[in-house]
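STRUCTURE:
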């Protein structure tokens, strides 16, 4: 038998709420992003790292980087901070709104425009950031929007960077997509895989 412990609150009684993402770093810490902020499972307890704010608190994706940086996709846009500035006791908290990328110009837009949901990094150092329907690329300190889905229901659900010129992503309606050298294309999964005629309908996930 296995025993499970459900964590509803951090060690300082902060509500964790709905968890969006959990990522491990090279030190085996677990970074947790939820609708109420950023947490970390360290020294066998959950610590809230982010400070309370009048802005939405949600952290939707986390990318612990090898250079000591931690990238976040948040309700207010993409953010970045460094491990050297983190107090893992939780006594000195991070104000995530102060960590938004300096290149991000949408922090004063309505939340559906400023929200970011995914963040990932290609082996060549290019960082890709996805909003619900938009895709951005950060390269050589320059942030640019490189794609927007034509339909608001076609939400981006996964992100797989290859390099500065190529990225794959999955979206709700157009499914498997690729952007290469500025050209967007999509793949019908039925051309890649023919399920058994008796198979039930289901969702596709890119891996």
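SEQUENCE:
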């Amino acid at each position: 038998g296995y025993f499970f412990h459900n964590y509803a609150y951090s060690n300082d009684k902060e509500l964790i709420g709905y968890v969006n993402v959990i990522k491990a770093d090279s030190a085996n810490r677990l970074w947790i992003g939820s609708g109420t902020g950023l947490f970390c499972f360290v020294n066998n307890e959950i610590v809230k790292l982010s400070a309370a704010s009048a802005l939405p608190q949600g952290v939707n994706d986390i990318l612990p980087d090898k250079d000591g940086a931690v990238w976040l996709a948040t309700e207010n846009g993409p953010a970045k901070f460094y491990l050297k500035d983190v107090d893992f006791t939780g006594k000195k908290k991070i104000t995530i709104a102060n960590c938004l990328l300096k290149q991000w110009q949408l922090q004063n837009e309505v939340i559906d425009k400023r929200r970011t949901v995914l963040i990932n990094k290609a082996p060549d150092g290019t960082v890709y950031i996805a909003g619900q329907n938009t895709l951005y690329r950060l390269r050589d300190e320059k942030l640019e929007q490189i794609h927007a889905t034509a339909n608001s229901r076609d939400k981006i659900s996964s992100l797989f960077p290859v390099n500065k010129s190529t990225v794959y992503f999955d979206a709700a309606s157009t499914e498997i997509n690729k952007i290469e050298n500025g050209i967007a294309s999509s793949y019908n999964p039925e051309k890649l895989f023919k399920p058994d005629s008796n198979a039930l309908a289901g969702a596709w996930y890119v891996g």
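REMARK: The chain has a mean pLDDT of 92.
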